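re: ur question from yesterday

yeah so i grabbed the chain u mentioned. its 89 aa long if i counted rite. heres the sequnce exactly as i have it in my notes:
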Amino acid sequence: MPRRKTSLKVTRSSKKKHLRNLKVKQQLKKVLKEIHSLIAAKNIEEAKKLLTKAFSQLDKAAKKNIIHPGTADRRKSRLAKRLSASKSA
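ran it thru and got these structure tokens back, copy pasting raw so excuse formatting
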């Protein structure tokens, strides 16, 4: 346990940030999983609607440094690629 007041404050704030980041990651994971299941079920229209929400969440997470910006771009690219491949098939 830290002894100084500033160390205690840092511990409290880092715990809050950790919980906030976890929540964002969990929501992101949930949306991505839902899109993958919709694409697998060939429900393209619903997946398209959810894709914009996923892109938005990925961008927000990257902006807040919860995930790396390159990771967000890569995931967006792969989602779009998977959606277009299932659309053409």
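noticed a couple things. The chain has one domain: 5-88. also Residues 31 and 54 are 6 Å apart (CA to CA).
anyway ttyl
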